Prior knowledge:
This protein is mainly α. The chain has one domain. The protein has 14 helices and four strands. It has a two-stranded antiparallel sheet with strand order 1-4. A two-stranded antiparallel ribbon has the order 2-3. The protein is globular and about 55 Å long.
Amino acid sequence: MRSRIFILIALAVAAAFFGASQLVANNYLFFAGYTVLQFIVLATAWNILGGYCGYVNFGSAAFFALGAYSTVFFHKTFPMPIPVLIVLGGLVSGIVGFGMGYLTLRLRGSFFAIATLALAVVLQTLIVNWDYVGGSRGAYIIRPNTINLAGYEIPYIEYLFFLMLALAMFAIITARTIERSRLGFGFATIRDDELAAEASGVPTLRLKLIATTLSGALMGMAGAPFPYYIGFLQPQSAFALDYAVNSIAMPMIGGTGSWIGPLIGAILLGTIQQVATVTISSAVNVLIVGVLLVAFVIIAPNGLVGLVQDMMRRERR
């Protein structure tokens, strides 16, 4: 399928999804939908580095928190519309992603993973001690109940839902475009055999820096609207374990290495977690992730996409 046709289909699906959501007079569905869409962006962003290049990043929560605290900083310094804050959050996280990659991408395997985890710890320590953005006490973001768009008053949560829906479409289109481009083929050579790629003249360090920058930027963009969504931002919520765990688990459950795997995994796991939050407790969300990961490692180590592909190959035989 050509990129233009895919973009038109993605936009049509997003418009239909948003239109259908307007028929439901329940604000909680917008709150839950926002969270699922947020995880779609995070899973897609993680997959650019972890799935396409094969470098496992445990610092997803750090980039997400950077986007969120960028919004707090600019909100206190010079208030701006949320779309602008999303772009600024992406720029800040992208720059940090580039810096992290430059310092750590010479490491491989578990050493790189540990380095990304250390980044999250360092950034959380800095935020806790930075009083301007609230420090350990946290910061309030006062938002209006409604917003006027083109003469229509809509609840603010619907506005945030629409922004995250647009961002999710942007992330998916970006991931698919990368997958089918020369850049994506370069990422695949790194994932399959980095030493052979270097010997063949592939600029592996440059490609990995591009991957860390893009991945970090998308995660920061996902975190930028979060202070307006939650209303009160503190380090424990911005650097929550859920973001680090889910951003890794969702692509693995759906299938890494393709744009559709993180999308499927995020919708499946995100929906299950939201249902569990309402019916049981949010405390079981990490347990659900652990159980599903163990199950998929045993049953479908390549995720749902890989499972379907294996079944199709068997039928052809």
